[in-house]
Specification:
8-stranded parallel β-sheet; alpha/beta; about 40% helix
């Protein structure tokens, strides 16, 4: 089995580091605002997921509006689009995904005939998250379920900001879904892991060891952001969590580049077999 990685980097390093991923993940707000960024993802031949930028706009609680998400999709032609989710709010996310699917269908645009759509369950408690998940995983218009680095640890670990909570919360969530025979593949859906934390390599290693071959892919800015903030991966982890969001304009210095390259080597090593 192999979990495909999408590396998220600043615009100046798309051609050197993002390109190393087996898949690509773009962000709608950058497609709309950054010509160089848009050109890279428009011309890239790898399978590309376009996120709605909810993580980048965490303080606002939601990403780019649905009409702008589709505008960004028309500009860059991704293979897959993340439907609009409302951070930590399960019922509103269900309504938002339903509205997004209706909105796309009303557009009746030939560009989206073969496009896949990802839904991202939200909540602040296990019960709320699971209620949201059960609604989304049964939707005919949804092809992929995304497991968030924010809502999953918030719901299954109590918060999403402590060291290892993304990894531990997502493992707990996935093991629960397995125990109750309700993983996305049981409903004909693929699974994508949105983001990672300071022990994200250990998370993927765990899935490999358990043979969870239905987990398709994972996107991460971790090796890039942790590298340029002076945090090298050692023994598959960094001891503390870094909460800084990616600086999309970041041009790496020579010293920062060494740390980033070290981290990329560590991440790429887990997919060698």
């Amino acid at each position: 089995m192999k979990i495909d990685i999408c590396y998220i980097t600043s615009t100046p390093h798309l051609e050197t580091h993002a390109v190393l991923g087996q898949r690509q993940l773009s962000l709608a707000h950058k497609i709309l605002s950054d010509e160089k960024y848009r050109r890279y993802y428009s011309e890239h031949l790898n399978y590309t997921i376009m996120d709605n930028s909810a993580f980048e706009f965490e303080q606002e609680g939601r990403g780019v509006p649905q009409d702008m998400v589709l505008k960004a999709a028309q500009m860059s032609l991704p293979n897959e689009i993340c439907a609009i989710d409302i951070l930590f709010n399960g019922p509103d996310t269900v309504d938002s995904v339903k509205d997004f699917c209706r909105f796309v269908n009303r557009k009746d645009h030939s560009l989206f005939e073969t496009t896949k759509f990802m839904a991202i369950p939200q909540g602040r408690t296990e019960a709320e998250w699971l209620d949201c998940y059960e609604e989304l995983v049964r939707m005919d218009n949804i092809d992929v379920i995304g497991l968030s680095k924010l809502s999953v640890p918030e719901s299954f670990q109590g918060n999403h900001t402590e060291s290892g909570n993304c990894t531990n919360g997502r493992i707990k969530c996935i093991d629960f879904l397995i125990e109750h025979d309700m993983t996305p593949n049981k409903f004909g859906k693929e699974t994508h892991l949105l983001g990672s934390d300071n022990v994200g390599i250990n998370e993927l290693t765990y899935y490999y060891s358990m043979g969870y071959d239905w987990i398709r892919s994972n996107d991460t800015s971790m090796p890039f952001v942790y590298g340029y903030t002076g945090n090298k991966i050692q023994d598959g982890k960094v001891e503390h969590i870094v909460l800084d969001k990616l600086d999309f304009n970041k041009q790496l210095s020579e010293e920062e580049l060494k740390a980033v390259d070290n981290n990329f080597l560590a991440w790429r090593a887990i997919n060698v077999n």
